[in-house]
Amino acid sequence: MSTIKIAPSLLAADFGNLQRDVEMVNRSRADWHHIDVMDGVFVPNISYGMPVVKAIAEHATKPLDVHLMIVDPDRYINVFADLGASVLTVHLEACTHLHRTVQAIKKAGMQAGVALNPHTNVQLLEDVITDLDLVCIMSVNPGFGGQSFIENTYSKTRALKQLIERKKASTLIEIDGGVTSKNAKALKDAGADVLVAGSFVFKSDSPEKTITALIQATE
Ligand code: DX5
Ligand code: ZN
Predict the structure, then answer these.
(1) What are phi and psi of 191, to 5 degrees?
(2) Which residue has the higher pLDDT, 2 or 81?
(3) CA of 219 to the centre of ligand 2 (A)
(4) Contact status, residue 176 vs residue 115, Cβ threshold 8 Å
């Protein structure tokens, strides 16, 4: 049985104790550090930029899963490669030439991900899916942590899984937003490979135990 990957979102960490929270993820059973970069244009919020990602990278021992919620992400592909990103995810809605952007991410030595807003149909990826290492289905509108999960995500995940199988692609499906131990199993059953969790992990009494609980909820 395949185990699901867990990617705690540091957006919900205590920024005054960022090193402590990154080290908690290092010690935990989580697989990736999920890093949300927002520009205040693509989404109505600004999170953090390169100096903070650099500080995270200096303490992180697991792969950096960087989620860019920014317009024209091509400008910064090489910057994030130099910062040590393993996976670089851009939004389909922010890319006019998505195929070119995906190739540029791979050329820079990273795995390429594409994120879809809740209104974006997965079939729009039909002609690029075999080039993608990861698709991130947004299960909330991007921009903020702590929002409630959109139920349509299950059918969307199943449709994406079918597309991946039909095209014989090896793309991972990541779910981002409102993930808890209540929906984790159903998401895995729908086809999810990676679960991002921010508030559920960091706002809990014991984040490290909550990560284990999230994994156990999917078994
Ligand atoms: C939202 C971000 C998410 C966010 C998830 O725009 O992409 O990664 O941190 O937070 P929760 O798990 O609290 O919904
Ligand atoms: Zn994210």
Answers:
(1) 125, 5
(2) 81
(3) 24
(4) yes
| Residues catalogued as catalytic | 36, 176
Fold type of domain 5-217? TIM Barrel (3.20.20)
Structural tokens at position 82: 């130099």
pLDDT tens column, 173-190: 999 999 999 999 999 999
Q: Could you tell me the pLDDT band of residue 1, with boundaries at 50, 70 and 90?
A: low
Instruction: Evaluate: CB of 177 within 6 angstroms of ligand 1.
Output: yes
Give residue limits of the domains in the chain. Answer: 5-217
Long-range pairs, 200-206, Cβ under 8 A, ≥24: 201/8, 201/9, 201/12, 202/8, 202/9, 202/12, 202/13, 202/14, 202/21, 203/12, 203/146
Separation between Cα atoms, residue 55 and residue 184, nearest integer Å: 30
Pocket lining: 113 vs ligand 1, CB cutoff 6 Å: no
pTM of the model: 0.98
